[in-house]
Hints:
Chain A is an alpha+beta fold.
Amino acid sequence: MTNPVVQKVNPMLTEERAKASFPVEELTYILDGGKFNTEKRREIEELVTKDPNFEHPPIQFMTREQQYSLAVKKALLVQQRLKELDMLDDPYASYFFRRIAMPREVSPIGLHWVMFVPTLMGQCSDEQRERWLQRALNYEIIGTYAQTEMGHGTFLRGIETTATYDPSSQQFVLHSPTTTSIKWWPGGLGKTCNYAVVVAQLHTQGRCHGVHMFLVQLRDESTHRSLPGVVCGDIGPKMGYHTIDNGFLQLNSVRIPRENMLMRNAEVQPDGTYIRRVSNEKLTYGTMVFVRSLIVSDAARGISEAATIAVRYACVRRQGEPSSPGAPEPRLLDYPVHQYRLLTCVANLLRTMPDVLEGRTERLPETHALSAGLKAVGSNRGAACVEECRRCCGGFGFSEASGLPKIYNDINPACTYEGENTVMLLQTGRHLLKCVERARRGEQLAPSDAYIRSRPTPQPKLAGGPLTADLLLGWLRWRSLSMLLEVSGRFNSFIEQRQAWADAFQAVSRRLTRCAEAHCILYVGQAFLDSAKAAENPKICGVLTSLCRLFLLNEVVSGAGDVQLSRSDLARCQDAIDSLLTELRPNAVALVEAFDLPDRMLCSVIGRYDGQVYEAMLQWARQSPLNATDVHESYELYTRQFLAGRSLAKL
Amino acid sequence: MTNPVVQKVNPMLTEERAKASFPVEELTYILDGGKFNTEKRREIEELVTKDPNFEHPPIQFMTREQQYSLAVKKALLVQQRLKELDMLDDPYASYFFRRIAMPREVSPIGLHWVMFVPTLMGQCSDEQRERWLQRALNYEIIGTYAQTEMGHGTFLRGIETTATYDPSSQQFVLHSPTTTSIKWWPGGLGKTCNYAVVVAQLHTQGRCHGVHMFLVQLRDESTHRSLPGVVCGDIGPKMGYHTIDNGFLQLNSVRIPRENMLMRNAEVQPDGTYIRRVSNEKLTYGTMVFVRSLIVSDAARGISEAATIAVRYACVRRQGEPSSPGAPEPRLLDYPVHQYRLLTCVANLLRTMPDVLEGRTERLPETHALSAGLKAVGSNRGAACVEECRRCCGGFGFSEASGLPKIYNDINPACTYEGENTVMLLQTGRHLLKCVERARRGEQLAPSDAYIRSRPTPQPKLAGGPLTADLLLGWLRWRSLSMLLEVSGRFNSFIEQRQAWADAFQAVSRRLTRCAEAHCILYVGQAFLDSAKAAENPKICGVLTSLCRLFLLNEVVSGAGDVQLSRSDLARCQDAIDSLLTELRPNAVALVEAFDLPDRMLCSVIGRYDGQVYEAMLQWARQSPLNATDVHESYELYTRQFLAGRSLAKL
Ligand SMILES: Cc1cc2nc3c(=O)[nH]c(=O)nc-3n(C[C@H](O)[C@H](O)[C@H](O)COP(=O)(O)OP(=O)(O)OC[C@H]3O[C@@H](n4cnc5c(N)ncnc54)[C@H](O)[C@@H]3O)c2cc1C
Ligand SMILES: Cc1cc2nc3c(=O)[nH]c(=O)nc-3n(C[C@H](O)[C@H](O)[C@H](O)COP(=O)(O)OP(=O)(O)OC[C@H]3O[C@@H](n4cnc5c(N)ncnc54)[C@H](O)[C@@H]3O)c2cc1C
């Protein structure tokens, strides 16, 4: 890959590494969820690194089609190796394996295990499970999850694809009645998969029963040709995700057996009678919360990669007026502005620790509503921090050589899929309005909502004592409640004026999204502090607590516009931020390197472990396809004539 | 291009268009700088649209190399046509022509006219002009501007390339002594250009005289082969800018005649004596301010394109719970949150009116210092607004079909080149510190700095009367001054503690960047209001003033964290924003359509004039190269074996 051989390490990096005030390896264990995991991860990384099957030239120089083809090969190879190594049932091992074998190469079969298999698990009757799940787990079939249509994403109930039951043949007829009903976006749908779970409106006995799921075969199992009535293909190039064939699917009266409706929660009997079972909403919510937590940790992974690259680069990059004649130029990390830009990203990264850890979904909030907002905040921040790290690298950050554009373009769509972020914040906001109402009625609230009351509390003073994390959290709690009460007050006054609930909701929606953000930040800040405090080693606990304070202070300062904060309080917060930057700077490299991301994963010329940036940059650029010849063919074709003043018109 | 044939217009768009409260065409004239310009522009657009030479399949389906080759062809064709049409000397006509012929396709010869020719104009002696300028203007040679090196961008004085004068041969020896001294980034340097202005450290008679400019021939004029000692090539793929060959250049003791030093401001005589002339800094600053103003208007152009796409789409996209059973789903533009997201972008767009207009660089501030900050604010906001518009389009915003990813990736690097934005803000900040000092000494300040005093002024009350634009501007002026005085107070206390100037500056740098932003926003807000008021038609004046208020209110609310604002004032501002959204919504389409961007320029399936989004989307996707066959070759190569349980290892 980009830089397999670690060269003599740049002394500037060695120097920075020596400054760490805490045992980096111990933090690595914490981040991996235990020493055992760290060791396993490293073993697997070594395994993949040694395997020549995973060697190839940098993908940045390939066309999209080449990237796709390579990704298919690698994704299948990964599965095969995992099977050979008997690791298929170990979620950690397979996660580590995929991550290192396909760094930031979105897998064309990813939907199979993220959505297809979990949906079969959750939505099949026991009998259906038996029939399909094993085949899916064995990869005898490859499936995707087809919900979104050209015309409908957010509003699921608007979906137009129909599944009409025909009792005479005991089949469902799956049909796309309009252009807008064509399925659009599902990963792997275009070329890779041969099956899909299709979401469609169920019609039977002349009535529509709303959206249900159906297992539809798309391609012949032996030729892979698309089946009669199935029109599917790739939706074309995107901002990122080049390696995956997000696809479209038009169904022209495609018939599937009655048994292909996923029947855990509802059933259509042979005669067409519709029976709804008491549905287990927890299961459905469970999958959603699981996928959302994957998104949050994927965003964190994006920040960890980008921050590792940008912080290392800031240690070896010198730029600017020397402090005295003859002295070397300052390093980027010497500039307080630069420290601020990078360290706030690092703080944003480590605040996600509790989510990243061990896929601890049990620490993801009990309530489905909170997970919506956390998904939005996590992916928004993820994209923003990666972009900040990218810009921190100057021009190189714009080159694919840095690896940063790819990280940005690959985590960015998470702001849209699995629930667009604004819509997600509104979902959390709606829940918060209900919490105020419940509080007014004296009902009990879930732990993360417990601070919500129906009356304001006095503003905590920031002046006086030291600005501890607890004090700052108290302030953020107060902020969140104040904003919420103001908005719910407005909302109630609309209701009292006899506005419809939906209209009153719309009228406060803009401000409600800010409330939802404030609520999520509070949750996240508390979780950050909890996990900082949980660190046994006092040095690690110390540095994490400082980072947590930086995170909280930054929220207080940048969110001060939402509520009133006195100038002197603001000034104290600003001073505290400045001190924290100085305090944390020596640990900047150690903090990102605790994530222990190998060069093979970063794929970054400027983020290399050895810090030997410039030679590698030249080597990398020489591989650009445009450099295959000294004189490019466009010269013979066009430029020669032009320079000679001859007309190009007939070209 | 994407959608040449306008179909029957979607009635939802027709309806929205009918809601305009002002004559759209008149605003178009204003934006174009007069009816005459509008007509000329349309004529030229028609000319290009009819010319089959500019026809080609959508570039999103091409490889980077194909895109580059096509861009060379088109860029040269544009020049040729302009010459045939005798429009070369008309900056407007050529601007319009390029824009429509190469929509968002960064020109491989762009640096020739943006930097190479202007540098020759500004830095050549009269005699040198005669020799080279005419050849450059006639495109007998194609040049670029090579300043940045791998090791140095921001800190120009650190540049390492040397130009050592050898009196015996009366030549300069141009040399790259290290890897870091290799020129990196110049546009068109890789493959296209045959000449470059090279920035290098001048050595003569054993002394170094700092950076100077030299005209260096890179490639043979008849074969285009790189000359002996010249190693140049493409720097490889980037986040955007696919159509241009940003290049590298290593000079191995390349000799050029003494006369190739650009000698307007300094000279090396035949015997090697160095003579510095009184330099005309205005000229150098003039070029800088010119390029920065281009960047600001390019960012505005990006917003205008993105906003046109997103606003039109928001009119035709229905999504969500109908207000009553059987009613159609709401349009995106019906959601207040969505109105807010889009209309703040539109406000940010129209606030740049004064800069966009007629390339009115005379309205760009007299001071070089302000232009640095305006460059930063303009490009930061440009990127942020385009990204917001992109996300407003849901999943489609991530597809290249929308045109939005390209707009983002193409305007984004403007945050980095021509002075990285943080560095630019610090430049303006440094100037502001000096202004406080001058104010203290009772000296006169430039008009845009005139509000700066050495003592605070009382906070203007927002309560009481209506929140007029003037009142809001007064508040922002007060905010800017308050922040600045606080920071300069800190700065002075460091100086009093005998810290070095540079250290004191670093200590306040983080906060100073916020001061610089606040100062620029104030300037921009005032300019926005001035141009709104200047509109003769009272309806246009009305709608622009409302937009200006939205812009200002949003700044007050989001910048409130920097200073103290009472909760009741905040609440009033929020209410005012809500009312403005309702007031402005009917004009949303009219406002973006006043920019009159033809489909050919937008290259967007979802931003089409006719609003027929979905059919076009399907058509577009079908052209994806992955769809050339039903079964992709990766199936035969890998998937078949895999599904059959056979090993892939030997592939
Ligand atoms: C890379 C990628 C991969 C994907 N993979 C899959 C997949 O495997 N399977 C699948 O089924 N789908 C997939 N999707 C589709 C994805 O789930 C949808 O894009 C997403 O649900 C948003 O729906 P939409 O695109 O229709 O946007 P819309 O719902 O049309 O929303 C557009 C805009 O309107 C706003 N908006 C919508 N409703 C409201 C409201 N009520 N209030 C305020 N604002 C509103 C949103 O904020 C958004 O900005 C994928 C998408 C992407 C980008
Ligand atoms: C698309 C593109 C086109 C370009 N075209 C050309 C061209 O035609 N010709 C040409 O000569 N160059 C060109 N450039 C180069 C461009 O001018 C440089 O990238 C730019 O000047 C920044 O320099 P750098 O990349 O070396 O970043 P650096 O100067 O190394 O800066 C890196 C980071 O450090 C921070 N930093 C640096 N100094 C300070 C400081 N004093 N205080 C605080 N922070 C600091 C910056 O904010 C930045 O985030 C181009 C670049 C791009 C991306």
